[in-house]
Each structure stands twice: as structure tokens, then as C-alpha cells.
Amino acid sequence: MAAHAVPSLGSFDASELDGKSHDEMVEMAKSAEDAEDWYRACQILMRAHRESGAIDSKSTSVDTFSGLMNFIDKMGRRSM
């Protein structure tokens, strides 16, 4: 039996966020959500929250928002 092709999660280039404010990134994420481009929306929000300090990149405890977001990001990257 042939394996089914896994659909693309979409595309995202972090450089498109360079120089954007937090509010601009949140608006971009909302636009991606409206277009049902979930991967793009998640990646934009992850970057916005990291830059705002809401996500501490060193946190590993999934009992905290930062730790949970880092875990989700790590698992997502492994699946790519």
C-alpha cells in the first residue's frame, strides 16, 4: 500500500516580521487566522510573544505558559 502524501502546513519566512511591531505581528497573525493559514498564524504569534517577553525561551516546565509554548514549538519543528 502506497503512503499518502502529507499535506503542506503552509509556508512562513521569519524575515517578513523583521522590523514589525508587536501589534503589527498580531494583526498579521489575525489575517492568517482569517485565511485559515494556521501554521503561519502560529509562527507569527510565537515570534510576537517571544519578542514581547511573554515566552521565556529557556523555560522547560509545561506547567507554565512559556514552557508549554516552547514544548509545542519543539514538537512542531520535529514533525516538519
Description of the structure:
With 80 residues, the chain is mainly α. It has one domain (20-79). It has helices at 22-34, 38-52, 65-79. It is flat. The model has no long low-confidence stretch (mean pLDDT 85).
Offer a few descriptive terms.
mainly alpha
How would you summarize what this structure contains?
The chain is built from 3 helices and no strands. With 80 residues, it is mainly alpha-helical.
Topology readout:
Elements: H1 22-34, H2 38-52, H3 65-79
Helix pairs in contact: 1-2
Helix content: 40-55%
Structural class: mainly alpha
In terms of DSSP E residues, the strand content is: under 5%
- Annotation field: number of helices: 3
State mean pLDDT (0 to 100 scale): 85
Termini distance? 23 Å
Computed CA radius of gyration, to the nearest angstrom: 14 Å
**In total, how many domains does the architecture comprise?**
1
Low-confidence stretches: none
Q: Mind summarizing the main beta sheet?
A: none
